Amino acid sequence: MATGNHSIVTEFILAGLTEKPELQLLLFLFFLGVYVVTVMGNLGMITLIGLSSHLHTPMYYFLSSLSFIDLCYSTVIIPKMLVNFVTEKNIIAYPECMTQLYFFIFFIISEGHILAVMAYDRYVAICKPLLYNVTMSYQVCSWLVVEVYMMGLIGATVHTGCMLTVVFCKDKIINHYFCDLFPLLELSCSSTYINELVLLCLSAFNILAPTLAIFGSYVSIIASILRIHSTEGRSKVFSTCSSHILAVTIFYGSAAFMYLQPSNVSSMEQSKVSSVFYTTIVPMLNPLIYSIRNKDVKVVLNKIIEKKPAERIMDHRNHSSVTEFILSGLTELPELQLPLFLLFRIYMVTVVGNVGMITLIGISSYLHTPTYYFLSSLSFIDLCQSTVITAKMLVKFVTEKNFISYTECMTQLYLFLVFAIAEIHMLAAMAYDCYVAFCNPLLYNVIMSYHICFWLTVGVYTLGIIGSTIHTGFMQLFFSKANLVNHYFCDLFPLLQLACSSIYINELLVLGLSAFNILTPALSIFASYSFIIRSILHIRSTEGRSKGFSTYSSHISAVTIFYGSAAFMYLQPSNVSSMDQSKVSSVFCTIIVSMLNPMIYSLRNKDVKFAQKKILESRACS
């Protein structure tokens, strides 16, 4: 083919679900709601299974894997889909498109095989109940899940590897709302024979093998059920499998409706609408199916809901209404109190550094860019977080007992959580800004407009407020008369240790919200820097690479220090860490990091140093 008909494609444009402007906002709100329900439903199911010993069985082990897969592949599709509803053109870079394709294929293949594994589990449970614990041992279940992910990994690697060899035409509009195999192959200017061959072979295996396994399992199950004489017994066994049968029917039914229509009947618009069902609706429905139609899950949920009121009818001799706490502080050694008081006056450095950074960015027009808009927000968060913690900490060093009222303690906890969660998400927003600046420089001013930056910042603080409100709202516990908080501020874990009532819901919330507020920003930062590093490595000159790395070294240092100190604080094994070690490491996370950030961005950032120099020169001239 003539070279004029195709060229090296660096980006695609996703056509989206519809071109009608009047439907964009409605669809955005609808799919945003679907995604929120999907995330909460699947995270809730994973958390529920993880924390409830009643659900620690092979069936729910596989169900937690299914929920994880649903959560991941809806996250691969929906966020990019939502962007299309609020932008004129939804541009996706070539590497980003291939990454989306890879993860979509990985999770969709994994889902097909995990449903087959769950069918096999039901077969063993009903047809061979006496051998169930032996056949479905922990080791067997672990290897079955590993094999499920290996199937997804192999299929995704082969398909994406073949797709990387395809030459695309200049017409780079993908007539879909995500990077799927068929819409991409339609843009090919080179032969797609190998791709179609691979697609046929792998599809035959990844569809027929799980389908035959599911069919074979349920044929045996139905045969066993029909041997049961009592109607009640049959009904009970059928109800055991009903949730899985419904999940399988919805998944395979929607996929069949999409791919198995005759070519003279189906169209791309119909394919889009039908694919919406199995890529966005199915991941939302699965946790609903298994919670509404499953007795075990409903029993556990009822126990959680009923536990808190029941716990309130406790013997009042064991607890009382606490009106104040005593903070034990950083150390009990009297000879260290004064040196530590003088040392932690570094709080003044934190205040001066962060206020200085906010002021510098505010008065220097040279720094009126999205990067420094986010940096000023980070400085504000650091300033507030250190103020919430350090001021009360200093009081302990000069008083015999550091009393803190119940209301003041809950206020400190609330504000600490707001700013701690906000800082994590702000670092993720800054990483995304770096990604756009380096990987899409021509579109930077469009993508990172004032309105986008403003709403990203609002989103950061909103997530902090939501997380903090939930945690603090559920902190209405009964506390023991021994009201000594073994910490230098009111943190979640030291407070929960004093509770006399059940903290099951609190632990559930800590696990669920921590998973979201740590993993989501961490994955966002990791993905952003993966693309940045990939782009930097494409630069041929050593000087260009060095300049690229130095541009983002400040943010990388800030992220490394923050996550490193947090990991050292929370991820130590229980047999290694102690409360005293946790106190010392948390000092770094809550106080030192807030002081270091403005130093990192002033000492390692050329723009900030240039702005400082300009201000100093203007003052000298005046």
- Gross morphology is flat
Question: Approximately how much helix is present in the residues?
Answer: over 70%
**What are the low-pLDDT stretches, counting only 5+ consecutive residues below 50?**
1-6, 308-320
Determine the structural class based on helices, strands and strand pairing: mainly alpha
Task: Please give the alpha-carbon distance between the first and last residues.
Answer: 68 Å
N-to-C SSE series? Answer: EHHEHHHEHHHHHEHHHEHHHEHHHHHH
How many strand segments? Answer: 6
Radius of gyration: 28 Å
Please report which band the strand proportion falls in: under 5%, 5-15%, 15-25%, 25-35%, 35-45% or over 45%.
under 5%
How large is the count of helical segments? 22
Overall pLDDT level: 79
Can you list the strand order of the major beta sheet? 2-1-3
The largest sheet, given as strand count, sense and whether it forms a barrel, is:
3 strands, mixed
Q: What is the fold's blueprint, element by element?
A:
Layout: E1 11-14, H1 21-51, H2 58-86, E2 90-93, H3 94-127, H4 132-135, H5 138-163, E3 173-174, H6 181-185, H7 193-226, H8 231-259, H9 268-292, H10 295-311, E4 324-327, H11 337-343, H12 347-363, H13 370-398, E5 402-405, H14 406-439, H15 444-447, H16 450-473, E6 484-485, H17 492-496, H18 504-537, H19 542-551, H20 553-570, H21 579-603, H22 606-621
Parallel strand pairs: 1-3, 4-6
Antiparallel strand pairs: 1-2, 4-5
